[in-house]
Amino acid sequence: MNNTNNTAPLILPMTPDNYESFVALHNRVYPTRTRTVEEVIEADRTRSPKLAFGRQAAFIDDQMVGFAGYSQWTGETHQTWFQIDVVVDEPFRRKGIGTALYSHLSEEFLPHHPKVLRADAYENLPSGLPFAETLGFKDVFREGPSHLDLAPFDAASFEPLIDRLQSESVRFISYAELKKDAPDFADPLYAAYRAAWKDVPKEEESDITRNEWNEWVVDGSQLDFEVSTAALCNGEIVGFCEVGSAADGRPLYAGLAGVAKAERGRGIATALNVKVILAARGKGHPQIQTSSAIENIAMQTVYSRLGFVREPVWIQLEKRVAETRLS
């Protein structure tokens, strides 16, 4: 979340005609998380009509100087959670534009009866956190994003690790191969995912229902099955690394990775990531992005060993709507 007290902007619902200005502003503020107009259009096309969503844009002299948006979270357990985004171009901050955008946005999302609002702030954008705090948001969790450029990655130093694991009957297989070899792959993969989810540091204790997981992994197209990889030992899934889908030539995002407790300490997590990196590079993707809780030392160590470059800390913010009041 990013704020910009005397300029009165014109605030209007965003339309596709505004997308070029929207993307340009987004990419100026978030140069390591760039988007394209085509990606925005595709996200609009594939978004479920059952989920509440909206965007507003702020204009001064026909120039877009800020935007705000809300989106309802997916999943059975988080249907009353909404993601909020407020961004103002750097020359126009501290003029009340961010506050005005949030006020307009509130009038649109509050009728959907949200219970929890979520927003993001970043360590390298220091105005974001204090602005969010003036709106009643609280710092609840921090993650360390990182990325790896794939072209220069040298897998040679990891070959002895992978050879050793394979000699110990550990097999690495893409989700696509897993699905082909075992039509009932979803049952053991969900069990492995759920076990890993319970262990991973997170802002609150929660579970992943089978319906939620099916929507993410089985029924939708959110994962790249040719890059996402599982580790099997004696026919049992002992680890996995999921990777979100992305358009050709765009960075991929590595999501949850996990290794069964009994198999930890063998280097399986590192080997899984090597396999993912090689598969992603083989498909022509230039980069993999990921993020893990700053207290998740094990995964932070794996990413560092593989050469991932750390980015500014991502701060997750929360506001309970029971505390929300419209002026």
Instruction: Please state the second-level CATH architecture of the largest domain.
Output: 3-Layer(aba) Sandwich
CATH topology of the largest domain: Aminopeptidase
Q: Tell me how many strands there are.
A: 13
Q: Calculate the mean pLDDT score and round it.
A: 91
The number of distinct helices, counting runs of at least 4 residues, comes to 10
Radius of gyration: 21 Å
Describe this structure as you would to a colleague.
- 32% of the residues lie in helices and 28% in strands.
- Strands 1, 2, 3, 4, 5, 6, 7, 8, 9, 10, 11, 12 and 13 form a 13-stranded mixed sheet that branches.
- It has 327 residues and is α+β, with helices and mostly antiparallel strands.
- The protein starts with 9 loop residues before the first strand and ends in a 7-residue tail after the last strand.
- The protein has helices at 19-29, 37-46, 97-109, 128-134, 159-167, 175-181, 186-199, 210-218, 268-282, 297-306, and strands at 10-13, 53-60, 63-72, 81-88, 116-122, 138-149, 170-174, 229-233, 236-243, 252-259, 287-293, 309-310, 314-320.
